[in-house]
Amino acid sequence: MRVFALSDIHVDYDGNSAWVAGVSRADYRDDVLILAGDVAGTLSRLQLCVEAFAQRFARVLFVPGNHDLWVIREAQRMDSLEKFERVAAAVEACGASLQPFTAGALSIVPLQGWYDDSFGEPDEQLKAVWMDYRACRWPAGWQTRDIAAHFLRMNTALSVPPANRVITFSHYLPRIDLMPSYIPPEHRLIFPVLGSSTLDAQLRRLGSVLHIYGHSHVNREVVIDGVTYINNAFGYPSETRISAKQLRCVYAD
User: Fold this and answer.
1) 2-252 — its CATH code?
2) Where are the domains of the chain?
3) Residue 91's closest CA among 115, 113, 65?
């Protein structure tokens, strides 16, 4: 069994959707795919993508990203909490899962999340340009920290067999130093909406040795304090320099 990782496939773009359709139906029948969020801004496109991967892999494990919880493009009125529940139900109906998976001595654990300002406070410029502030809808009075706390609480009861090798994954970054130093100052504007340091505490509590993340669209592998962090984002069609645009094998037994 092999484990592959991919995030930020954004099948709202027809070229990205065509790439998914072209993935081999024969090469991954015994393998696991970690799909670390940002599949589509609409439930219908998300479902088609997850279903396509579920037809190609033995197991697809998923966490929603911020785009997956957008409601602005949905025909039916809902808030983003209801969208999360509908996404979870659709994913399960496709044969994929948001639940931990164990095979032999390997455990793969999804971590839900949102950004919580632990990487910095968003300024007015970021609030004006960051689409989540308009495309998501939350209960009245909820602030960013309330949203993050809601999803991060979902991870507190997770556990794994003590002897197992543990892989965790999230859409959001668990630490801001995963962003490389070469990022230009003008692009650091978005750092406050990239993730949550609580995720790092949670994955280390689980004993993770490998963590897959997405969201930043900056493909990277780095080892920090004994944990290997990997981002393999597909990204937007124009992002050919920072995204590999291919499946990446992150584990093989």
Assistant:
1) 3.60.21.10
2) 2-252
3) 65
